[in-house]
Structures are given as structure tokens and as C-alpha cells.
Glucosamine kinase
Amino acid sequence: MGRELDALDLVDGKRLSIVAGPDGMAAVPEVQAPDGSWWRAHPGDGVAEALLTMLAAAPETSTTGSFTVRAWAAHSVAGERAIAVDQTNESVIVGEAAVVKWATHLLQGPHPAPHRIEVLRANGFRSMPTPWGLITWRPGDGPETLVVNVDGYLPGAVDGWTWAVELIAEAARLPAPRTAAVVAAATDVGTMVAELHSALSITAATASQADADRWCAAAFATLDQAQALSSSETADLLRERRDEIERTLGGLGALAGGPVIEGHGDLHVGQVLQHAGGYVVTDFDGNPVLPAAERVLPIPAVLDVAGLAQSLTHAAIVARRHHEVDDRSLSAVEQAARQAFLKSYAGRLTELGHAGLYDAAPLRAFRLQQVLREIVYAARHLPRWMYVPDAALPMLLDERTIGAP
Ligand code: ADP
Ligand code: MG
């Protein structure tokens, strides 16, 4: 294993270690062998259990060396198993009650999650897995980052790349679309995102010209990268429609003076889990494509709204690839879902007295930026995803904008 940088003892023979390896830093569970040497632990070795026992006994905030422990709702539970899905980090389910996520892909700080989760807890936001606690670590005099996160476990939870894709596919199976279920889901999610933003409204600030210039420059840089990395057909489309695309993205430069909040920052259907009790939002790690210092910055609420709305289109494109659907029906379903989400979001935000947080004008620009980012992401990391932005780009460019933005 890599070079040991720091460690937090949990109980005798079990610890959380920060190690530096060839792929960056990692927070890993370790167990001690009888000869005193430390080994990487795996589900079943009891290190996640030991962590929960430590959290259950800890005060709400405590500091040990470079580690800060926040403990909110933890209790001791036993029995460890690995989470069954593909994921970036390593999560362990303990006692079918908690998910302990070790940051095996440690992000350089500052990390957006601790403050957002704290604000959401303090403001009574319920539509997220119950936060049990978290541990942050500060390297030398560098910025603090998240090393372990513990949430209540939601049995049977699936993310929107499953639930939204299935609902959309089912609604668009026949030439006559049956939108009721997908519209109901999109409405619930719109309500939830409005409640999320309302709970975060305490962080509201005003965008500066420097913020607006940065958003605009980032969108143009993404456009250039997408142009360079996309398939020839998409590259042609980007070239032919360049003026119009630049006009749309250029609108981001006019957002100075508008409201910003410490929003989710990486909102899409994959971050929305469906479980027996409804929908919850997860993963407050911020946008992975941004440099660390920018990931923590406040954003316009519409950026989250655009991310979720555009991901409904992407879910429809995935549905078309993997299910029997009627194409015209699919298009009607996709629009109905997106409109229902936007309407319920705006309606609930107004009901909660926070309409002033949301300016829908840049919705199209941020949706377009999302498509461009996915082109870049697919080209660099996930070529088999490219069919999604390839299909989404012409859909978005040719969408009628009369009436709704
Ligand atoms: P990563 O950062 O490693 O991708 P996530 O936090 O996004 O990890 O979680 C990956 C998956 O684990 C989710 O898509 C979901 O299926 C499952 N998951 C995450 N948190 C919970 C939870 N509290 N209860 C049940 N399943 C969860
Ligand atoms: Mg994730």
C-alpha cells in the first residue's frame, strides 16, 4: 500500500488511515495483525463497526490531531457487507442500518459536503439519507477535506439511472404516451429540489461580475473542448450552430447581481435515490469537473435545476437505447417530465417564500453547458456514454423556446 500520512485510532487494532498512493490520496480502513503490522481492512473486518461505536460515544464535534469528527445520530450496529453497486469510493453497509463511505478517492479540499450537510440538518431538510456523522482531515496547513461519511441506510434504494429510465420507458412504450406516473415522480422531485434550495437559502449571497465572468469563461472553454473531442457529426453541429451556441452561453456573463446559494452543484437523476419512503438527494461532493477551490463556491439555483432537468432528457435517451419505446411518445414523455419538474420546483419554491432565489433565464445556457460537459467527460473517461450527449445536443438546439425558457 501507499505511504502512511496520518491515522485516527478507532479501537485497539482498528484505525482510519490516510495514505498517499500513485493515484492520489485515500482514506482507508485498516486492521492490525498480531505482529503489529497494519493491513487494509475489508467488509467483515469490523473497522466500519468500530467507527460507528466511536461515533456513538463521541460529542457532536471533536478534534483529534488533524481529524475533526462530527457525530449526529450514530448508534452501534453490527454486521458488515459491501455495497453491491459500482462506485467511485468504498461503501460498507453496517447492520443494514448505516452506510459508511470511506473516501478511497480522496478529493483535495476544500470540500463542499460538510458545510452543506450541516446547513441542511440545521434547517430540518428531510429528503436526504439521515446523516449519522462525518470525519474531515486537514493536511498540514492545507484546506480540510472529507474522509469518511456515514448515512442511514435506505434498503432497496435505486438511483434515477434506474428509476427515471424505467418510468420513462414504461410511459413511452406505446404510441399513446401514459405520462401520469413519470409526471408524478418529476413533480415530487421538483418539490424536493425546491425544499433543498429553501433549506440552503441561509447561504444566499449575490453573484459578482467575477463570478459571472468565470461561469461564462468556463462554458466557452467547455465548448472548445467539446468541439475538439466530439464525434464528427457532433463537431459539425457545434461548428454550424456556433453563433447561436455562443449567444446562449454568453448570457451567463450577465448573471452578476443575481442570487447564489451553496447549492448541490452536481444535481442529476443519478443523485436522486428512490426508496420506500419516496425520493432523497445524495452526494454533496460538488461538481467533479471543477477545481477544488471552485467546487465550494455558491452557484445560481438554476444551475441545479438545469442539471436535473437536462438529466431527464438524458434518462429518456438511455430509455430509448435499452427499452422498446415509441419515439414520438418518448419525446412527449420527456417534455412532460421536464415541464412537470420545472413547474413543481418553481411552485414549491414560491410557496416556501424563496421565489427570489430562482431566475430561470439561464436555464437553457446551463442545460447546454451540461451537454457539453458530458461530451468532454465521455470522450475522456466513458466513451460508451457518448451516444447520450450526441443525441441530447440536437434535441436541445432544436427545442422550441416559445413560452417556457
Ligand atoms: P460514490 O461517490 O462512490 O459514487 P455514492 O454516494 O454516489 O458513492 O453512492 C453510490 C450508490 O450507493 C448510490 O447510487 C446508491 O445506489 C447507493 N447508496 C448511497 N447512499 C445510500 C444510502 N444511504 N442508502 C442506500 N443506498 C445508498
Ligand atoms: Mg455518486
